[in-house]
C-alpha cells in the first residue's frame, strides 16, 4: 500500500499500443556497441533454416532467442494529463504505457565452422574438356554468400580460406581436387624452371604467372597460396612464405586423394610415402609423417592406405551436371613442363 505522504504517479495505457521487442545485450557486445567506434550490426539467417536468426558483428555472433516472461513488462513514457480539470495537475507529468512486452530477446554466443554452409552453396569449379576457362553464368558474390551464413564474417573468411574458395567474374566458387592438382603442378613447374625454393620466401607473381599461362585463373592460385601460407592474407605480388606444417599436410592429402583415384582399394604405404616426399622441397622431405594425416586415412590392410571419404583437407567430390555451365570433364591441359625445363637449362 502506498504511504500517505508519498504523492501518486498517474499511470495510464495509450489507446494505440506500439510494437516493441526488448533485446538484452551481453556485456561484451554492450561494450562494443557503446565504444567510440561501434561496429555495424547485422541480422543473418541460413537459407536452409531461416527461423534461426543470428545477430553478428565482424567477429562476434549471437543466436537470438525469444524468452517468455511471466511478469508484465510495460514500456512507458512521460505524458501530460490533458484531461484533468485541475490546472496544477495538468502541468504534472504522468506515465503512459505505450507497449506491453510479453517476451524478451536474449543473445547467446554461437561459433563453429562455415565450411558446411560454403560447401552447400558454392558450385565446384573445374576446366572444360578442351582446357578452356568456363564462364560462370549464375552464382553469387562472396559478400552475398557471407550475408546468408549465420556466423561472424571472420569465421566465414577462415572457412573460405580453408576451402580455397575464390571469386571469378563475381561468382563464388570452390575448386575440385583435379583442378587443385593442376594448379599445384603449375606452381611446382614454375619453381623448378625459375629456380626458386618453395621452402623459402618467393614472389607470389612467379607462381601465378606460370599457372595463368596454363589456363589456371589467378584467383584460384591466390586461394591455394593463401591456404598454404597459413596467414590468410591477400596475395598479389609480395614475397610470401609457405607454412611448412600446412604445406606438408596438404600435399600428403593431395597425393593420397590422387592415389585413391588411381588405386581405389588402397595404395602401398611405402609407395605413398615416396610419392608424398617427391612433392616436397628437399629440405622438407623428412617432415612427411603419417601423424600429420590423422583422421584423413584408413588402412584396408596393415601395408596399404586410403584417404577417408569425409576428409576436408582437399575437396574431391565428383562434379555435378547441374552446376550451370561450370561443369565439365577433368582438366586435360598440357603443362608442357619438359619444354620449360629444357628452356631453364639453356
From TrEMBL:
Pfam annotation, one family: Dcc1
Keyword Electron transport: no
Name the record gives this protein: Sister chromatid cohesion protein-like protein Dcc1
Bias type Basic residues, positions: 332-346
GO cellular component: chromatin; chromosome, centromeric region; Ctf18 RFC-like complex
Biological processes annotated in GO: DNA replication; maintenance of mitotic sister chromatid cohesion
Keywords (A to Z) from UniProt: DNA replication
Region of interest: Disordered: 316-346
Organism, as annotated: Xylona heveae (strain CBS 132557 / TC161)
Family affiliation: Belongs to the DCC1 family.
